């Protein structure tokens, strides 16, 4: 699949990233279209619990079924689960890499990256042959938050890069949702006290999440609900 470079003045550049300011040049494979403006970032730890994986998969399926693009970082754990579940549900997904597009990390996700490019896009602001690095992984998290209309953190500890994505989403004035699996973390508790941040709990549908997205930012934390299928 062809590799493109695109800038903020070019047609097809992610609208959310353009509006965020300081929009970088991007290398990409695949397509980003108007339908991807309705998007949600699903992010979290590389070492999730079984329940965390189930939540990520359930949310990604529901978003795909509602025609919402799932954005994530192609990392092991929550990111991989979200991308895979979205594609399995015939949805669109966008992956933002912390390495060059020709150096997919982790290597075992190279096939998943190809699937994403065929049904969405794989993006990086780094040169195609750039290796992965801790700095590059941190740098891609604000890009994820800027591309997406909202960010959901499924499960993340005190050192997870998902914290950067969450804080970036809040700084950009985007909707931020924290799963109840992460809400007990001290860093998450601080964010939940802020306007525009909502908490997700299990037992209801993603329709409520989408309705809240359409209604604008709240003035106080709101509890939403998310289904988890038995056996996942």
Structural class determined from secondary elements: alpha/beta
Largest sheet: 10 strands, mixed
Could you please say which CATH topology applies here?
Rossmann fold
CATH class: Alpha Beta
Q: What is the architecture at the second tier of CATH?
A: 3-Layer(aba) Sandwich
Describe this structure in words.
- The model is unreliable at 217-232 (pLDDT under 50).
- This protein is globular.
- It has a ten-stranded mixed β-sheet, sandwiched between helices.
- It has one domain (4-226): Rossmann fold.
- By secondary structure, the protein is an alpha/beta fold.
- It has eight helices and ten strands.
- It starts with a strand and ends in a 6-residue tail after the last strand.
- The protein has helices at residues 15-19, 50-65, 78-88, 110-118, 134-147, 162-171, 186-192, 206-214, and strands at 4-6, 26-30, 39-43, 69-72, 93-96, 120-124, 150-153, 175-179, 197-202, 223-226.
- Helix 2 links the parallel strand 3 and strand 4.
């Amino acid at each position: 699949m062809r590799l493109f470079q695109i800038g903020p003045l070019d047609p097809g550049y992610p609208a959310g990233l353009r509006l965020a300011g300081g929009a970088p040049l991007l290398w990409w494979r695949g397509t980003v279209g108007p339908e991807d403006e309705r998007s949600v970032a699903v992010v979290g730890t590389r070492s999730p619990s079984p329940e965390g994986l189930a939540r990520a998969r359930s949310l990604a399926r529901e978003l795909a079924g509602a025609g919402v693009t799932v954005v994530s970082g192609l990392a092991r754990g929550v990111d991989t689960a979200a991308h895979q579940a979205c594609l399995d549900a015939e949805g669109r997904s966008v992956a933002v890499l912390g390495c060059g597009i020709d150096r997919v990390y982790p290597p075992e996700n190279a096939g998943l990256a190809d699937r994403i490019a065929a049904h969405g896009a794989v993006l990086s602001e780094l040169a195609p042959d750039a290796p992965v690095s801790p700095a590059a992984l941190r740098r891609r998290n604000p890009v994820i938050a800027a591309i997406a209309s909202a960010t959901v953190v499924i499960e993340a500890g005190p050192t997870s890069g998902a914290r950067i994505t969450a804080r970036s989403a809040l700084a950009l004035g985007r909707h931020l949702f924290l799963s109840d699996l992460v809400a007990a973390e001290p860093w998450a508790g601080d964010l939940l006290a802020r306007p525009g941040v909502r908490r997700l709990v299990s037992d209801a549908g993603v329709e409520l999440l989408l309705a809240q997205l359409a209604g604008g930012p709240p003035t106080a934390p709101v509890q939403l609900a998310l289904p988890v299928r038995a056996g996942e």
